[in-house]
Amino acid sequence: MNKDTVEHIFFDLDHTLWDFEKNSEETLTHLFHKYGIGDGNVALQDFLSAYRKANFELWELYNFSKVTKEEIRDRRFPMTFTTIGLDPTTTPPTIGQEYLEICPRKPNLIPGTRELLSSLEGKYTMHILSNGFDATQAVKLETTGIGQYFSTVVTSESCGHKKPSAEIFDFALQQAGASKENSIMIGDNPITDIKGAKEYGLPTIYFGTETTVADIEIDNLLLILEHL
């Protein structure tokens, strides 16, 4: 990777800048207590773990077009109830919609996000490239106040394709007026963000703790400043 040629930075949003785990846990904890899930016979941590598992499995399927957005939203809470030993038909009918209304408005960011974006501002043109959905990602960017840093926001909905497909990377570069030669992808998912971008021809920075095919691997967002 030649940092001197980089002009455009494409960031994933969830788990990379927006702290999905913390925001989701706060929302789920509120809903768990609101509905008295399990009537005192289910531990909160078991509920949280079951939801994480269901949500992860459904998103993995979505990334490869095996389920729809609607199926993710309809199935993840019933799947959670099944895992914790409750009848899925007893899932509160509005819990899924309440989650969608509350969670994106949570303001927690991955540590270092604001400092990183502030430091990069003016030096690079920055963009969001996400497999998330238009409305929810827009709310996250507005609520946290980091939307101001990004020139374009491309989601799987606005593009019609999902990472790791080449089509979404191509679409994002076109929207940004960027090229493979002057762009870089930064994300937390070894497959959708990193492998997909590498196969498309983009240099990559991986944020996480796994071993990947990324050009650079970091476990602290502010370490990006050492490479750009």
Automatic annotation (TrEMBL):
GO MF annotations in UniProt: 5'-nucleotidase activity
State the superkingdom. Bacteria
Q: Which InterPro entries match?
A: HAD-like_sf, HAD-SF_hydro_IA, HAD-SF_hydro_IA_YjjG/PynA, HAD_2, HAD_sf, PGP-like_dom2, Pyrimidine_5'-ntase_YjjG
NCBIfam families reported in the protein's UniProt record: HAD-SF-IA-v1, YjjG_YfnB
Cited PANTHER family: PTHR47478, PYRIMIDINE 5'-NUCLEOTIDASE YJJG
Tell me what this protein is called.
Answer: Noncanonical pyrimidine nucleotidase, YjjG family
What species was this sequence derived from? Flammeovirga pectinis
